[in-house]
UniProtKB/TrEMBL annotation:
<dbReference type="InterPro" id="IPR036393">
    <property type="entry name" value="AceGlu_kinase-like_sf"/>
</dbReference>
<keyword id="KW-0021">Allosteric enzyme</keyword>
<keyword id="KW-0067">ATP-binding</keyword>
<dbReference type="Pfam" id="PF00696">
    <property type="entry name" value="AA_kinase"/>
</dbReference>
<keyword id="KW-0418">Kinase</keyword>
<comment type="pathway">
    <text>Pyrimidine metabolism; CTP biosynthesis via de novo pathway; UDP from UMP (UMPK route): step 1/1.</text>
</comment>
<feature type="binding site">
    <location>
        <position position="176"/>
    </location>
    <ligand>
        <name>ATP</name>
    </ligand>
</feature>
<comment type="subunit">
    <text>Homohexamer.</text>
</comment>
<dbReference type="GO" id="GO:0006225">
    <property type="term" value="P:UDP biosynthetic process"/>
</dbReference>
<keyword id="KW-0963">Cytoplasm</keyword>
<keyword id="KW-0665">Pyrimidine biosynthesis</keyword>
<dbReference type="InterPro" id="IPR015963">
    <property type="entry name" value="Uridylate_kinase_bac"/>
</dbReference>
<keyword id="KW-0547">Nucleotide-binding</keyword>
<feature type="binding site">
    <location>
        <position position="62"/>
    </location>
    <ligand>
        <name>UMP</name>
    </ligand>
</feature>
<comment type="function">
    <text>Catalyzes the reversible phosphorylation of UMP to UDP.</text>
</comment>
<dbReference type="GO" id="GO:0005524">
    <property type="term" value="F:ATP binding"/>
</dbReference>
<feature type="region of interest" description="Involved in allosteric activation by GTP">
    <location>
        <begin position="28"/>
        <end position="33"/>
    </location>
</feature>
Length: 246
């Protein structure tokens, strides 16, 4: 169920999108936690797309605070560690909500794990209504299940909300055949198939997220969040990025 309405702005072909960012994107140059100026900068990027009338869903990871796998590696029960990771994503979602609202963008944090005093529980039809009213919906607590990641949560919610694409904001401007930080001769793909991402283990998103996107024909656009104005530019088809599709 993809949103089929005409975009509000001629600048972009998109009317409803999912923006996925990792928790680490919010920590700036620190090794941990939240860096408020960075959160504010990303909020500004989101606002400039919101100003076009695009309906925006967001999923933010939790890796800047806690990752289930690292907890498990230190002897913690995996499911407990994963629940801690999911709670970390709620903190990041609240930080992004505060930053967006300071810029005058209305938002809702919607959690897969009900915590009524803090944010809304996830009810699909309600979330769709928020989007129609141009509220940015920040989906928190992942899928609500251990053994998953927020990449899968982003793909799941993007499908449920009828998003036209997932925009994955990273530190690099697309998907490369090898790590561009380590290998200067790494080549960026313009377009790459879901199956190649899986077969070559290109590290765009985890395998369950890629498979869920593939099975529902949901394009994933990988771009750099470090470029000022980058998110809006990418929505208008400018700049460098990689499209993962069939
Ligand atoms: N997590 C989970 N189920 C989900 C989503 C997330 O258990 O549906 C946990 C998992 O432990 C994960 C942590 O939350 O390590 C933080 O999410 P993620 O690693 O995806 O964050 P990112 O790498 O994007 O910052």
């Amino acid at each position: 169920m993809t949103s089929s309405r005409t975009p509000d702005s001629p600048e972009t072909k998109y009317q409803r999108v999912m923006l996925k960012i990792s928790g680490e994107a919010l920590m700036g140059d620190q090794g941990f936690g939240l860096h408020p100026p960075t959160v504010q900068r990303i909020a500004q990027e989101v606002k400039s797309v919101h100003d076009l009338g695009v309906e925006i869903c967001m999923v933010i990871g939790g890796g800047n605070i806690f990752r289930g796998l690292s907890g498990a590696a230190q002897g913690m029960e995996r499911t407990t560690a994963d629940y801690m990771g999911m709670l970390a994503t709620v903190m990041n979602a609240l930080a992004m909500q505060a930053a967006l609202e300071s810029l005058g963008v209305f938002t809702r944090v919607i959690s897969a794990i009900p915590m009524d005093q803090v944010c809304e529980p996830y009810i699909r039809r309600r979330a769709v209504r928020h989007l129609e009213k141009k509220r940015v919906c920040i989906f928190a607590a992942g899928t609500g299940n251990p053994y998953f990641t927020t990449d899968t949560a982003a793909t799941l919610r993007a499908n449920e909300m009828g998003c036209q694409a997932i925009f994955k904001g990273t530190k690099v401007d697309g998907v490369y055949d090898k790590d561009p930080v380590k290998f200067p001769d790494a080549k960026r793909y313009e377009v790459v198939s879901y199956d190649d991402v899986l077969a070559k283990r290109l590290g765009v998103m985890d395998a369950s997220a890629i498979a869920l996107a593939r099975d529902n024909n949901l394009p994933i656009i990988v771009f750099s969040l470090d470029e000022p104005g980058g998110f809006r530019g990418i929505l208008a088809g400018r700049g460098t990025y990689t499209t993962v599709c069939g």
